[in-house]
Amino acid sequence: MMIDLRKVPLLLFLLALFTTCQSSKTAREDTITMKQNLIIILPDDMAFGDISAYGNDKFNTPNIDKLAGQGVKLTDFYVPVPYCAPSRATLLTGRFPLRHGMTQNPAPDSGIDSIGLSDDETTLGESLQNKGYAARLIGKWHLGHQEKYFPVNHGFDEYYGIQYSNDMRPVQIVENTDTLEYPVDQALLTKRYTEKAIEFIRSNKNRALLKKAVNLWLIVTKERRTT
């Protein structure tokens, strides 16, 4: 069979185009398959104007400002309830308090011990675990302080923190299901939470190569020096 050499450049171009398209398709598929790491930081008792990204000229928060500058800075945000447990349960489940059942705060020093997040609820942590994520929660939980309500029973592989508000008693650090420390020097909480978060990220840094990823929740509470 005779080949018209005048058409060879066109054939080479089409072959190169086809190869490029196939490579691009493979790259897109790899990107879609590769899960993204998630870090959710929920600051306790932080108001809209507490960081310099939102106009505060008394405090400089360059690292948080950098997140805002390189990402999306929202100017409107709504929560279903202006206090701890119901709003946290909504963040985890995507459901209103009257649906997920957490309408008040558990409070050990007030004898409110029997309420917590129901096993019937599917949390974001559980959904991500089902997709191959490693999930850890660090800091305040406040969705039940009996063991059946602990974070490790609601979609988190690991937990480190205080089960409720740090102005409730007793203030104690729980790791997974064990009481690790009592009393607690709360002046060290931010440092410890930061160290635990970095430790988790580093220990799971290769999971993305296995098409898995990490989901880290860092719940920041206000520090107190009382024990």
How is this structure best described in words?
The chain is 31% helix and 13% strand. It is an alpha/beta fold and 227 residues long. It folds into two domains: 1-33; 37-220, 3-Layer(aba) Sandwich (Alkaline Phosphatase, subunit A). Strands 1-6-2-3-4-5 form a six-stranded mixed β-sheet. The radius of gyration is 24 Å and the shape is globular. The model is unreliable at 5-18 and 223-227 (pLDDT under 50).
List keywords for this structure.
2 domains; Alkaline Phosphatase, subunit A; alpha/beta; 227 residues; globular
Summarize it.
The protein is of the alpha/beta class.
For the residues shown, what is the average pLDDT?
82
Can you list the strand order of the major beta sheet? 1-6-2-3-4-5
SSE class: alpha/beta
* Count of separate DSSP helical elements: 6
Q: Briefly, what CATH class of the largest domain?
A: Alpha Beta
* CATH topology label of the largest domain: Alkaline Phosphatase, subunit A
- The CATH superfamily of the largest domain is identified as Alkaline Phosphatase, subunit A
* Beta-strand content estimate: 5-15%
Largest sheet: 6 strands, mixed
Measured between the Cα atoms of the first and last residue, the distance is 90 Å
Cα radius of gyration in angstroms? 24 Å
Low-confidence stretches: 5-18, 223-227
Silhouette: globular
SSE series: HEHHHHEEEEHE
Helix content: 25-40%
Instruction: Tell me which CATH architecture of the largest domain applies here.
Output: 3-Layer(aba) Sandwich
Domain count: the total is 2
Number of E strands: 6
